[in-house]
Amino acid sequence: MAKSGSLSIRVVEGRALPAKDVSGSSDPYCLVKVDDEVVARTATIWRSLSPFWGEEYTVHLPLDFHHLAFYVLDEDTVGHDDIIGKISLSKEAITADPRGIDSWINLSRVDPDAEVQGEVYLAVQLLDDARGRCLRCHVRQARDLAPRDISGTSDPFARVFWGSHSLETSTIKKTRFPHWDEVLELREAPGTMSSLRVELWDWDMVGKNDFLGMVEFTPQTLQQKPPNGWFRLLPFPRPEDSGGSLGALRLKVRLTEDRVLPSQYYQPLMEMLLESVQGPVEEDTTSPLAVLEELASGDCRQDLATKLVKLFLGRGLAGPFLDYLTRREVARTNDPNTLFRSNSLASKSMEQFMKLVGMRYLHEVLRPVVSRVFEEKKYMELDPCKMELNRSRRISFKGTPTEEQVRETSLGLLTGYLGSIVDAIVSSAGRCPLALRLAFKQLQRCVEKRFPGVEHQAVQSIGNLGQQLGQGKELWLAPLHPFLLQSISRVRDFLDQLVDVDGDEEAGGPACALVQPSTIVREGFLLKRKEEPAGLATRFAFKKRYFRLSGQDLSYSKTPEWQVHSSIPVSCIRAVERVDEGAFQLPHVMQVVTQDGTRVPHTTYLQCKNVNDLNQWLSALRKASAPNQDKLTACHPGAFRSGRWTCCLQTERTAAGCSRTHSAVTLGDWSDPLDPDAEAQMVYRQLLLGRDQLRLKLLEDSSLDTDPELGPGKDSGATDETCTEVLAQQRAAITHLLQVLEDLEQAHEEFQKRGQGQVVC
């Protein structure tokens, strides 16, 4: 069974960064790496030493990951970007607090000797003979070493230390995947026992050699369990030395791991959850949903809401689930102006439902306008505190424009873009998913029932849009008020159209997946190259094609409108991996390895436009091919060119892959497939946190049973028989829920002893 976890990452902001440009500022951006693989790049914040990013990522990854790193760089138009500093977080540091990390962390200097990566394969034997003790170290190979040379490769050799003796392997030129297969023998005097240290170095003809990493084994390890296998390379131990002089980042990081049992173990809990939304709402205090609503804290409420929405979506009961939470929220709200203003489970669940069901609709409606804004790259700013006149020089041919000129030009541009956005939104009611429209209609009915009357019509339609214009702190937005006021009636009409829908289908009706197999999950232009095009230079071998990925195939054609297209069945994909830049002297290249009925592998190379585009395509392809059997565990990160692999220098095209594949590393997003077992597992974990409260409530109900005068319903004039019946129902519900939790806990203990179960986020 696959084992994986989930990292929730938020790169919030930076402060006190050093100036790297002659202007006295910097243009910082942040790279996020998991075990030396770039998984995300933030936007560049121009001319700022205190940048705000506010970017969030969810990374699904295997449990054997070791560290997370953040590199801050200064983007330069000419030449290489300057490295400002880094933050490295070990898995142990992230998991030290169950809530994760949420703090300012100082940047450290990037030390080349500490920038190590990769693994080395060793087999060690200890032998005793008449001359003393002999250590035989078989240095087989290494993989994924750091590139130290300008060519993007290294010239690695290994140096083995044992006691006062040392030996070296041969040097293998121009590779990050060396194969030595050399046995080095070292001897020690009888009665002594030292640690073993193996260092890897990059040989340089001029200057000193570059450190690539090391591993070390204690005498106890050598005697009890001699090393035999792959070992992760480590840097030389040395203290951090920044002291805050390089600035700091504010980061939020949380690792989630859990063991998921087979589906049948969650059936009792699932039945209780489904029964919760069918029963009475206001009086419910003991159902799993009522308990979750009371227990969920701000830190985990959004994750819990996402899991619950997915769980009920998969059962076709998202409508009753949202209605249950909405009625509870509305029932305890006295002031309609505060409705859904809190971070309640109801508001978070509706928010996540809209994201999961409506994200594609949102992209379709707004993508053309947003793309145009980015393509035109017009400078716009109304806030006088942030206005940069030098950046607006092209607005006027008479030198630097005045603040008033920039404001007038920005107002015209903003009004034009906003007009296009409003036009796109108000004309899209018919394209809005039916599940969303039904959910909005049910929400409106619920609010109308709780707050009837003309005075609450604003609450029931569009809230207080337009009522607070000119009363806020951002008075520099006042020039936009006429446009906003003119748009209010159009937006109100749009909202009325949204809820003017008939249909008996429940909101979020029957669904097995958020994205159906035929749905396009990603599309765009990529540069495509076949394995070995004859007679073409590398750059000319890549052809621009428009790609579309669905759950069924990866198709491509010359243009989006082109009728003739080719396709790669998703079921044939065996690996989706990055390609070393040195393979084609091109950045952002990935490979899709497929096998057809003949079992012969074929590789398609695709170049993306930037690192984020690369990561998103890698993630989408890995998710689409996740159910495939016989996926490769290793592949070549280079290309077979001129009769050998550029990565490991092997001369056989069919040679086994030299690098591990990373099928478990993906980016979380709205199109992730439903996983009811993983979702039920998180619900179970949250309920476990409230088990003591449930037991206490059971004791309280028992005491009330002995004193009927204190029982529920006495204030409303209920009879003793009614009170006794209510108490009995509450006790039965709590007892049942506690038993379900106990059964799941026992199942986890049994599976843990047997080493089974699926570990996921």
UniProtKB/TrEMBL annotation:
Residues 519-626 form the PH domain. Residues 727-754 form a coiled coil. It comes from the Eukaryota. Residues 1-105, 116-231 form the C2 domain. Keywords: Coiled coil, GTPase activation, Metal-binding, Zinc, Zinc-finger. The lineage of its organism: Eukaryota, Metazoa, Chordata, Craniata, Vertebrata. The keyword Cell division does not apply. Transmembrane segments: none annotated. InterPro entries: C2_dom (IPR000008), C2_domain_sf (IPR035892), PH-like_dom_sf (IPR011993), PH_domain (IPR001849), Ras_GTPase (IPR039360), RasGAP_dom (IPR001936), Rho_GTPase_activation_prot (IPR008936), Znf_Btk_motif (IPR001562). GO terms for biological process: intracellular signal transduction. Residues 300-465 form the Ras-GAP domain. One of its GO terms (molecular function) is zinc ion binding. Gene3D superfamilies: C2 domain (2.60.40.150), GTPase Activation - p120gap, domain 1 (1.10.506.10), Pleckstrin-homology domain (PH domain)/Phosphotyrosine-binding domain (PTB) (2.30.29.30). It comes from Cricetulus griseus (Chinese hamster). This is RasGAP-activating-like protein 1. The keyword Metal-binding applies. Pfam families: BTK, C2, PH, RasGAP.
